[in-house]
Amino acid sequence: DTGVSQNPRHKITKRGQNVTFRCDPISEHNRLYWYRQTLGQGPEFLTYFQNEAQLEKSRLLSDRFSAERPKGSFSTLEIQRTEQGDSAMYLCASSLRTGGPKDEKLFFGSGTQLSVL
Amino acid sequence: SQQGEEDPQALSIQEGENATMNCSYKTSINNLQWYRQNSGRGLVHLILIRSNEREKHSGRLRVTLDTSKKSSSLLITASRAADTASYFCAGGNYGGATNKLIFGTGTLLAVQP
To answer: Contact A43/B41, CB-based, under 8 Å?
Structure first.
């Protein structure tokens, strides 16, 4: 399977615990995005990487959230001291930006569904 | 924050009928994209229209873009039960410090067999 892979698919945790999600993008893609989606809403942008550099972060990404993309390959998203409001689907997407942005489209993984009890 | 809103929020049609979804967005865009999402799954890219284009076709899909009204529409012709999903428009906002897609709230389409 050469698509975007996310692990785990589901995560149930207790409030206050730390969780980490992993995303493996399509191998030749240089951009990687994290989005969060709650029930009945569209995905909301969290952050994105160009290779290993994190270039933009949303104000939704509080100090409890941190994302990394070491060596420009896979990425991890960590949430510390989880709160019930963090319950959502966390989506990862990758893209290949070769020139201008006008034709850039995203390839999404199946997401990690987080439930904070 | 969401880019804009989609209309209707939910749509139920019979197989073989056409489905039209509308999207309004707030900021300037470089392109407008439509994605489909089946329940509990990730999003799948359907079609992209550049800001300097007015209409584009791909198979049973037809998308229009009116930048003066900041609106777009997606038409699915001859719908099938397998088209049942949520559909999201997304504005490509690239320039300066920002480079991202901003998604709308989505239209839930149910195609009855």
So the answer is: no
Please write the tens of the pLDDT for every residue from A32-60: 999 999 998 999 999 999 999 999 899 88
CA-nearest of B98, B47, B14, B6 to A101 is B98
For residue A115, list chain B residues with Cβ-Cβ distance below 8 A: none
Quick one: CA torsion of B42, B78, B59, B7, rounded to 10 degrees?
-50
Q: Is A4 on the interface with B (CB under 8 A)?
A: yes
- Do the Cβ atoms of A16 and A81 come closer than 8 Å? yes
Q: What is the dihedral of CA A103, B43, B54, B16, to 10 degrees?
A: 140
Out of B92, B97, B104, whose CB is closest to A56? Answer: B97
Nearby residues of B39 by Cβ (< 8 Å), 6 or more positions away: B85, B86
- Over the stretch B6-37, which tens digit does the pLDDT of each residue have? 889 999 999 999 999 999 998 888 899 999 99
**For the segment A65-83, what is each residue's pLDDT rounded down to a tens digit?**
999 999 889 999 999 999 9
Tell me the average confidence (pLDDT) per consecutive run of 10 residues in chain B, 113 residues long: 76 97 90 93 94 96 96 97 96 74 93 94
| Residue among A37, A35, A82 at smallest CA distance from B40 | A37
Q: Is B59 exposed, middle or buried (CB count within 10 Å of its CB: 0-12, 13-18, 19+)?
A: exposed
Distance of CA B40 to the CA centre of its chain: 18
